[in-house]
Design brief:
Shape: globular
Largest sheet: 2 strands, antiparallel
Structural class: mainly alpha
Helix content: 25-40%
Radius of gyration: 15 Å
Number of strands: 2
Strand content: 5-15%
Strand order of the largest sheet: 1-2
Number of helices: 3
Distance between the termini: 36 Å
């Protein structure tokens, strides 16, 4: 993915898309240099997980102040 380009991973449920995205994002964020045998750059990463609903986010340890939402 080129710098400043948006990307999306999609596929069947249970295909490990979230794990793939997290692995790649962590490698970029920590400046690993390579990921799965490919050269990668370093930089900031924004990971958005749209699988969880509002109540699930709150139940997993994030309160309304950290995400800017109300119960």
């Amino acid at each position: 993915v080129r710098e400043s380009y948006r990307s999306m991973i999609f596929g069947d449920g249970g295909a490990a898309k979230s794990l793939l995205a997290l692995s790649h994002g962590l490698a970029v964020a920590r400046g690993a240099g390579t990921w799965l045998g490919r050269e990668i750059g370093a930089g900031p990463v924004l990971y958005l997980d749209f699988e969880l609903g509002h109540q699930d986010v709150l139940a997993h340890g994030c309160n309304s102040q950290c995400v800017g939402i109300e119960d």
